[in-house]
Design brief:
The protein has 295 residues and is mainly alpha-helical. The protein has 10 helices and no strands.
Amino acid sequence: MIVTPVPSYTQIVREVWKPLSVLFIWDVVVTVTYYVLPFHAPELPLTLFGSALALFLGFRSNSAYQRWWEGRSLWGLMINASRNIARAARNFLPDPEARDLKRTIVLRQIAYVNALRCQLRKQKVDDEVLRFLSKGEADFALSRTNTANGIVDGTGRRINEAKEKGWIDTIQQSAMESVLVDIANAQGGMERLKNTPLPNQYRFFPMIFTHLFCILLPIGLVETLGFATPLGSTVAGLMFLAVLQIGDDLVDPFANTVHDLPLTAMCRTIEIDLLQAIGDEAPDPMVPDKSGVLW
């Protein structure tokens, strides 16, 4: 996610130069054709077309942003639930004999959020997951189709083990299980966003209409703007293409691009909070890279 208040102009140019170049060339072709082979430009209702298209693109961008914000809200719930499970493990398991189990529950939660991050980004499970799990626990989780859910299931069994050994009572077990339910619900919401794209109509028709409008724009403006048509038409078309691109950038909040949620940084936040909760040394928070992007 880009966190600097002023975006990098290099990044902007990198994203827009291709469509901008094609649009400018087409505008030049129309303008030259108009002066070399004079033709009467049809009176296109560009204002009406543009207004309708702007409303359509605005509605699409709002829908995409709602998905992005919902993803961020779900990760906020995940951060809070992770802190809650660590606090419950620390407070409900003060018995010295339960020290290893308490640490296991906390470390499993750190492994879990990193496994979820990898799943949402469609990456292989990395070392940030494996270093918090023992060999047997890692093998069990990796054998599951849904690795993150396998880790949560294992945490539930550890909580049940604490109940059987008398380290926690039924009420405490229920309290910890309710936190695991919150975690599972948040994961389910993230998976729903990841696996359910915007309907095809929201993706296909805006793209077709925007490009068609950019094609018609210089034809309808050339008699009015004359030699300034390439500049005026390109700038106007660029605004519509930019709004179209905004929707594409926000529609999947869990893709690993500069516009998406900083899952790695949020996992680091959870890791810091949970390790400090059990008195372990924690790493430093992540900071934006030299391009102002927080991953």
